[in-house]
Design brief:
By secondary structure, this protein is an all-alpha fold. Helix content is 64%, strand content 2%. Strands 1-2 form a two-stranded antiparallel ribbon. The N and C termini lie far apart (49 Å).
């Protein structure tokens, strides 16, 4: 059977009808609202650190030359989206072969774990944490869109879900630095610890709700049409574009 242009691994022709997360009585279930928070958490993990990078690169204030300091700030800013760019196709390939729901939940837990120690580690470890955080974010947002697509009851519902998910990505961009400022005031040595706890809480909530395993309308024979090229490009570059404005010049 083919779902949205991609064949599912294994036999899905007789798969059970699964409408977890689908709209009922005109209301979205709690699982979709948790999914919105997951999208916001993924983008907040990128923007929250940016204001602290200059101090994190050179905590001794003067140990690095000006050119080396600027290089590391720019590199640490770029390594997160670069890791996301390289890892996204890998997560897509894996999601075709394993349960995407486990991947989505694991990615949130990993993002929380690599966000918490920021401020407590040295420069090499900071690069590694940023790299892993980018890889985790590359799984969360696309798999969130996949989950929303599976739960949608039709094209209109799918469009509404995609719109809200994209809006919460931008909300995460906005909220990330604000939450980090509050966190830094409480825990100055670990400025992202409170944000990490919030991301972990979202991951725990995602483990407690039911997410759709299959595309229910597709199993019923009413395949949702494939998105147009324009819609695909917007979904691909929309979450990435706003982050470019934070890159240092």
């Amino acid at each position: 059977m083919v779902i949205r242009g991609w064949p599912l691994e294994g036999s899905t022709a007789n798969a059970p009808r699964d409408k977890a997360g689908s709209q009922a009585n005109g209301r979205w279930p709690a699982s979709f609202f948790v999914l919105l928070l997951a999208a916001a958490a993924a983008s907040a993990g990128q923007t929250a650190i940016l204001a602290f990078l200059p101090a994190l690169v050179d905590p001794a204030r003067g140990a690095l030359s000006s050119s080396a300091h600027d290089f590391h700030v720019a590199s640490l800013t770029a390594v997160h989206p670069l890791a996301a760019l390289l890892a996204a196709p890998l997560w897509g390939w894996i999601a075709d072969r394993v349960d995407y729901r486990a991947m989505l939940r694991a990615a949130l837990v990993i993002l929380a774990l690599v966000t918490a120690p920021i401020g407590l580690v040295g420069l090499p470890e900071l690069y590694a944490l940023r790299l892993v955080a980018g890889m985790a974010s590359a799984a969360i947002i696309p798999l969130g869109l996949l989950c929303a697509s599976f739960a949608a009851s039709g094209r209109a519902d799918q469009a509404r879900r995609f719109t809200w998910l994209t809006a919460f990505v931008f909300l995460g961009d906005l909220a990330g630095p604000l939450v980090a400022e509050v966190s830094a005031a409480i825990l100055p040595r670990a400025p992202l610890m409170i944000l990490a706890l919030g991301i972990g809480a979202v991951g725990a909530a995602l483990c407690a709700v039911r997410l759709p395993r299959w595309c229910a309308p597709c199993i019923d024979g009413g395949d949702l049409p494939a998105p147009t090229l324009g819609a695909t490009l917007i979904l691909l570059f929309g979450p990435v574009g706003p982050k470019l404005r934070f890159w240092p010049c």
